[in-house]
Amino acid sequence: MTNPSNVTLSNCDREPIHQLGQIQAFGALIAVNSDWFVAHRSTNLEDIFGRGRTVEIGASLTRLMTPGAMDLLRSAAANLAIPDQVERLFGVALFGTDDLFDCALHSSGANTIIEIEPHAAGDLNRQLAVLRPIMSRLEKHADLLPLVEEAARQLRHTLQIDRVMVYRFRDDLSGEVIAEAAREDLEKFRGLRYPKSDIPTQARALYVRNRFRIIADVEAEPVPIEPGISLEGEPLDLSMSALRAVSPIHIEYLHNMGVGASLSISIIVGGKLWGLFACHHYGPKLLPYTQRTAAELFSELFSLVLDRTLSRQIANRRDLGRDIHTRLMRDVAAGTPLSSSLPMIEPVIQQVIPHDGVSIFVEDIYDSRGSAPNEEEFRAIVPGLNAAATSRLLASEQIAERMPRATRFADRAAGALIIPVSRTPRDYLVLWRKPLTQTVVWAGNPEKPVETGPNGDRLTPRKSFEAWQETVEGRAEKWSEAELDIAEGLRVTLLEIILRLTDEAVAERA
Ligand code: BLA
């Protein structure tokens, strides 16, 4: 096993964050074996239960709790049937007194883990009732960005938390803050990108299994679990725990950001981690377990609405693609030469394949819009283009890598989606994208002093953003699969038009 203390900024992916042997101090943990004898316990039982209320390792849990409470716990444990299932009980009188507790049970190896925290005022039914109006508000939004903005706003309002961000993972697993609802006076993170390493692989895998995480007080000392290693030689697996102490590297990150408490709620689409609601509070914040449970259900409902929105978005784009086909055909029938069709088709293409510039090169006539190479620069790459396969799209985030002559305009047009539209001489429609380092700019205050901890100043959003910029140096946004599909449709349309025009020209000459 990797020793957590050997984890550095460069090997974060290896930190066993599910086996740190510690929990957060706002609850207590007891792991029992199949006979309900205590196999592990956190060292803070009396802090949570009250003085004198504790149980030794190896003793039966019945020594501590009333028979009624034991019955409740046993039947909850008996309900645990599927992997990663968690059973919750709210407001249980564990000791036959007025002290009430919220309990969560799940299986971990041969043990049942019972996590217990004082019952906070808050009724699950009321928390769940809040979800209905929120969901109907969300369902009104047909497009992704208004949907996620509304979700961030609703979540912030409901949880009364200082900042809610929607953090979306991209294909390369870097991340982007695509929506944000935050207290007025706070610096905003919307639009910023972060490298893959900010949320390491094992953390992302864990967040698929366990949808809700709370870090109630970034400054609180974690509480050890004893024994750290079981008789079988294993530390307790806390993957499904609600109290799991958080990686010290991430704690340092939050501390450097000035964050006092953090919640993150997974957004899962098609079984994959699509993103997170990342929520920050600038002081400690412990949400009642009932409210956390409602927020978890919200995440499941939201994922469904999002899935539907994403599918609809793909269908809409396909429709727009067909629209371009119809328009082009109509214009050509009306006699508009293809090389003059840019003003008409460009705005429609922009909606389906966002780009910063476009070039059209038909029958040796060049026209361009936006951030595209000029005619001379374009003509310089034509031989390179002609040498590529005739009937295939060519998509690159960094075209200069393949065509050195494109280096001359790489500062304006780094990414290219090249659509060849005829055989000899070749005609082209090319969409261009600027380098990402120009389109995504950090808006935060660079003068703001950052505190640094034992791992240096890397663990701050500004340094993360710089780390991300380094990974994309010279590159533009990737052309997505969906965009390539549409471009392929466009290629076929343009080819059809060109063939038709050629036929007409031949017919006229005959
Ligand atoms: C976890 N890192 C996380 C989480 C987020 C981020 C949202 C989820 C845990 C949570 O807070 O609830 C990243 N948070 C961000 C980013 C922003 C933000 C990018 O607010 C931007 C605004 N983190 C690093 C580096 C490492 C690292 C360099 O920055 C390691 C090399 C590790 N991040 C790390 C680990 C976790 C994590 C180990 C898991 C924490 C846990 O669940 O125990």
Automatic annotation (TrEMBL):
Residues 143-300 form the Phytochrome chromophore attachment site domain. Its EC number is 2.7.13.3. Transmembrane segments: none annotated. Keywords: ATP-binding, Chromophore, Kinase, Nucleotide-binding, Phosphoprotein, Photoreceptor protein, Receptor, Sensory transduction, Transferase. It is an enzyme of class 2 (transferase). It catalyses: ATP + protein L-histidine = ADP + protein N-phospho-L-histidine. This is histidine kinase. It comes from Qipengyuania pacifica. The chain holds residues 1 to 510 of 847 of the full protein.
